[in-house]
């Protein structure tokens, strides 16, 4: 039958237009919020930034939030605030976006990659413990796909060894661990506002924290290391006077972006719920298909589902992951691969990281596929994804009857 033949081999594609793997959802209120700023006096350092920070801090349940021009800049700021410098080791996961590890390099620190757990794909606390040395300064765990890491064990470990935990929660805004929101667990927590993430400011990120010392350092770092705070000035020449006390960067977010963030925050819970519903539907309809595994959930973790990643049992297919990927793309399903393990990147290889240091992550990389997942997907989009996965996988499955 024609509809059983993959589009890659000349059949009719499942959809006429490409379905992205992730995408923002903006409504008229979002647009109006930005336009109001454009009509006002301040398009950059105005009142919307602290309003946005206040909303994020209240949502996360913490005292302080400092917004940055990107999640990457926010992580860089957190590494500065944690005092990471040359000679310091920081343990993170290879199964992440580059920023989780690059921020360590920016500060002159040394990333140490701890392997992941084969079920949740999150960093393994036992691996962290095994890699601790007298030089370990901090841990940067990542809630891969939106499923929280075992943050209680990681905090125990950190507190016993006097380490700072910078929680990369770019995937897990709105997620919970043991019934408690992500944002309150670690010393500092980062959320990203890139358009594929839970809420967007175009580009942007934030660090939330309960620690006032970190908060003050983050403020300095975001703005060239400049302060006008009379309490900390070395001297004071007059009302114009400011001091640069640290080497900071220009990592400020704009009022235009913060206005979008303020409006997007009103929808965060609905967006997370929609993501959970889609993920639930995927798991219910894909579980039991020969040749794939749906994501496993830790009993203490309540994911906010940034990504939906399936694992392929490659022995059961007549083709490689690459061809399955291409076949799904030909159906106009925008599948993706998250992630290429960081230590396998040429830059990291040049630094001396070798293949084989994180065998579970490396094996996992060969088998994963990310399915489209974003709140604006229609029920039809969701059914298209499931139907295309069925169609393509069935076509290439090696018959189990012989
Ligand atoms: C998105 C993301 C970041 C930050 O990215 P920005 O694009 O700089 O906001 C950091 N870590 C992870 C795991 C991410 O997915």
TrEMBL record:
Classification via InterPro entries: DegT/StrS_aminotransferase, PseC, PyrdxlP-dep_Trfase, PyrdxlP-dep_Trfase_major, PyrdxlP-dep_Trfase_small
Gene Ontology MF terms: transaminase activity
Transferase among keywords: yes
Origin: domain of life: Bacteria
EC number annotated for this UniProt entry: 2.6.1.92
Protein keywords: Aminotransferase, Pyridoxal phosphate, Transferase
TM helices/strands, residue ranges: none
One Pfam family this sequence matches: DegT_DnrJ_EryC1
Family membership: Belongs to the DegT/DnrJ/EryC1 family.
Full protein name: UDP-4-amino-4, 6-dideoxy-N-acetyl-beta-L-altrosamine transaminase
Originating species: Cohnella silvisoli
Lineage: Bacteria, Bacillati, Bacillota, Bacilli, Bacillales
Gene: pseC
């Amino acid at each position: 039958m024609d509809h059983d033949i993959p589009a890659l081999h000349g059949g009719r594609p499942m959809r006429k237009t490409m379905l992205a793997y992730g995408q923002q959802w903006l409504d008229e209120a979002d647009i109006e919020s930005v336009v109001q700023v454009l009509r006002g006096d301040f398009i950059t350092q105005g009142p919307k930034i602290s309003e946005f920070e206040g909303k994020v801090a209240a949502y996360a349940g913490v005292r302080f939030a400092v917004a940055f021009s990107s999640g990457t800049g926010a992580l860089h700021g957190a590494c500065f605030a944690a005092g990471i410098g040359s000679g310091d080791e920081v343990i993170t996961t290879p199964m992440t976006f580059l920023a989780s590890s690059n921020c360590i390099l920016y500060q002159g620190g040394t990333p140490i990659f701890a392997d992941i757990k084969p079920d949740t794909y999150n960093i393994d606390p036992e691996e962290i413990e095994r890699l601790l040395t007298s030089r370990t300064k901090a841990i940067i765990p990542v809630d891969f796909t939106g499923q929280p890491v075992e943050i209680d064990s990681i905090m125990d470990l950190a507190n016993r060894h006097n380490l700072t935990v910078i929680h990369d929660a770019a995937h897990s805004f709105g997620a919970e661990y043991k019934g408690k929101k992500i944002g309150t667990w670690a010393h500092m927590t980062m959320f990203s506002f890139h358009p594929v993430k839970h809420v967007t400011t175009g580009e942007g990120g934030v660090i939330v924290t309960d620690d006032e010392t970190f908060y003050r350092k983050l403020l300095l770092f975001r703005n060239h290391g400049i302060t006008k705070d009379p309490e900390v000035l070395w001297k004071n020449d007059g009302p114009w006077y400011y001091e640069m006390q640290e080497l900071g960067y220009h990592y400020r977010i704009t009022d235009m972006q913060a206005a979008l963030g303020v409006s997007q925050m009103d929808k965060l819970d609905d967006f997370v719920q929609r993501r959970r519903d889609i993920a639930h539907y995927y798991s219910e309809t894909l579980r039991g298909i020969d040749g794939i595994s749906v994501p496993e959930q830790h009993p203490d973790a309540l994911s906010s589902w940034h990504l939906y990643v399936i694992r392929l049992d490659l022995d059961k297919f007549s083709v490689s992951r690459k061809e399955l990927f291409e076949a799904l793309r030909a159906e106009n399903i925008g599948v993706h691969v998250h992630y290429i393990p960081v230590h396998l990147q040429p830059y990291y290889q040049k630094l001396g990281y070798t293949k084989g240091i994180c065998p579970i992550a490396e094996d996992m990389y060969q088998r994963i596929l990310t399915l489209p997942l974003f709140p604006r997907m229609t029920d039809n989009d969701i059914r298209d994804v499931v139907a295309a996965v069925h169609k393509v996988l069935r076509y290439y499955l090696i018959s189990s009857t012989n």
